[in-house]
Amino acid sequence: MVSGPWRDLPPELADVIEPELPAATEEILATIAREVPEYARPLEGSFGAGIRTGVSEALRQFVALIRDPEAGRDPGRDVYVGLGRGELREGRTLDSLQAAYRIGARVAWRRISGAARRHRVDPGQLAVLAEAIFAYIDELSADSVEGYAQAQREQEGERQRRRRELLALLLRDPPAEEAEVRAAAQAAGWRLPRSAAPLAVAEADLTRVGRRLSTDALVAPLGGIGCALVAGASRRGELQRATQHLHAAVGPTVPREELASAWALASTALRAVEAGAIQADGLLDAEEHLPELLLFQSGGVAERLAERRLAPLAELTPAARGRMEETALAFVQHGGNAAAMARALHLHPQTIRYRLTRLRELFGEDLADPDARFELELALRSRSAAAPG
Questions:
Q1: Does residue 101 contact residue 54 with C-beta atoms inside 8 Å?
Q2: One fold for both 5-155 and 194-297?
Q3: Which pLDDT tens digit goes with each residue over 120-170?
Q4: Which class for 259: exposed (0-12), middle (13-18), buried (19 or more C-beta within 10 A)?
Q5: Domain segments of the chain: what residues?
Q6: With CB atoms counted within 10 Å of each terminal CB, which end of the chain scores lower, N or C?
Q7: Could you tell me the pTM of the whole model?
Q8: At what angle do helices 123-170 and 95-118 cross, to 10 degrees?
Q9: Which CATH code fits 194-297?
Q10: Could you tell me how far CA 170 lies from the centroid of its own chain?
Q11: What is the DSSP letter of 9?
């Protein structure tokens, strides 16, 4: 930046300050090592080089700004961005680095102001010099905050990449080798459970759902669908809260080696719900809808069966066809028991008897044939699933 208070200092002040830099650097380093517990170790290796570079560059750049404020400090920002990134790599917060900056400002001011007074620098300029030092340190600190945040984003991106890879590995069919899975889980920082349940949601809803699940859930997109593996026994209440007001389907809780088939079931159930083939209010348990999923997956086969088995109803009006399909489904479900059919359809028994007569006229001997009745039920359930909700 070129707008700092150092712009109001005379360039020749840089010549007064510059001789103080070597001693100031050593005093700052010694004070940091003494007062900041995280840095209380020999300044050796890459750690020591980084701290020493940070201090010496800070002083050098400050003098350069006084000498030529127009040059700005962009070329030197990388040092302090890098220090912020390094703190995250070391597993620390920014507290120690910020403390080191404050120490640096304090020691630098004592050294520099002493030299300025010895050279009889005007008191007004001394006040500006103090403001410039502390404003400069604030900028260094902001650079390190930026670097720390950058590293956090990159770390989170790497974590998500590894978790996506692990999820794909766990849901691979045929299953991946156990050693490969364990290595991927370690890299992703995820503790492998003995069993888990897969949850399927729209990919656009995955972030929202992931925030609502406990931290042991493995959450990542897979093949255009949002997936979450919930470890251990299925936690129905947690899943219902996480997917409230969303389309979602959960597969069975299975051992790790069976997760691929459980995921296939959950993802198929989600597609069925989104297509309107299964009506679901909230979280759908895929295992409770296996017949509907079987028909949904069969696609054109189920539709062809429906066309063939329901051909006797083709000439009826839409309203009459709907009534007879409803009656036929109740017939196969209740074994032709008129009383049970009446209760299921909330109709008067006489109405049911009339409909049964009509049903026999339309389907004839097929109603007495077990194989035909089975196909008729499949056809009716398929047609019901395909009907708009």
A1: no
A2: no
A3: 888 898 999 999 999 999 999 999 999 999 888 887 778 888 888 999 999
A4: buried
A5: 5-155, 194-297, 299-386
A6: C
A7: 0.56
A8: 160
A9: 3.30.70
A10: 17
A11: S
The per-residue b/e assignment along 52-70, b for 16 or more CB within 10 angstroms, e otherwise, is eebbbbbbebbbbbbbebe
Region for 173 from its dihedrals, namely left if φ exceeds 0, alpha if ψ lies in -120 to 50, beta otherwise: beta
DSSP string of 16-50? HHGGGHHHHHHHHHHHHHHH-GGG-S---HHHHHH
Q: How many CB atoms lie within 10 A of CB 389?
A: 10
Cα–Cα dist 160/210, whole Å: 12
For the domain 299-386, what is the CATH code? 1.10.10.2840
Name 255's bridge partners. 195
Q: Which CATH fold topology does 5-155 show?
A: Globin-like (1.10.490)
pLDDT digits (tens, 9 = 90+) for 195-252: 999 999 999 999 999 999 988 899 999 989 999 999 876 578 889 899 998 999 999 9
